[in-house]
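ligand=IPE
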Amino acid sequence: MKLEAFAEPGSEEAVLLESIDAGKLPRHIAVIMDGNGRWAGLRKLPRVAGHRTGIDSVRNIVESCRKLGIESLTLYAFSTENWKRPRLEVRTLMRLLKEFIRKEMRSVNENNIRFLAIGRIHELDESVREELRRFSELTARNTGMTLSVARNYSGRAEITDAVNRILSECRAGGPVIVTEDIISGSLYTAGLPDPDLLIRTSGEMRISNFLLWQIAYSEIYVTPTLWPDFRRKHLLEAIAAYQLRDRRYGGI
Ligand code: IPE
Ligand code: IPE
Ligand code: MG
């Protein structure tokens, strides 16, 4: 792995990088960014403090993936089930997303990253939709990496939306036999490779309705590290662990 501009020679990160095979990087990494509330609770802070620090982790992981040459990074930021949370927390999460976009739009674009919002985006507030639209349009032609942020996202809703889309295409005279490719191509993630590596922070051994179709053969890596503490070093650890897996896809 090329170390320049990435890690101090001799540092823990440099050692980790040495153990990573640049030819076998995951093409697509998906992350369930969990544990912000617990991180704040441990510090006797309000939950939103965890969400705020979690933004620093997002910035760090986006930058690191781009530098490593990861093709696609998908972050789970807000599920359709997260509306059950107190109004203030939901409002803060929406505000933090807008803030993130305003602050990061320029550097994301300069780094040749394409931004994609996935989920039932049409159900979000107009002000949030407007920010998401501006960000997606500005970066639409970038080719360095695709950064997808899942917002008001549910894997079951995504499949349901895909089925309805296919049905209306059939009614309009489209294909009557549905194939796996047609389903994949009707999801919000159409055109992206399926995730090779799915990371969940903060220890929970569940999927929480994330990318249900796409993770059929993803390698799952669960770490006890809470999302606001998760930085480049932890990402490299996850990639190193991924590279030790034997991906058999049902073969031998
Ligand atoms: C992840 O952290 C952020 C979102 C789900 C929006 P949580 O807020 O779920 O943190 P915990 O799981 O309660 O610690
Ligand atoms: C999953 O975390 C959703 C996001 C990270 C956005 P949750 O905290 O909502 O998941 P559960 O409730 O522990 O399953
Ligand atoms: Mg949680």
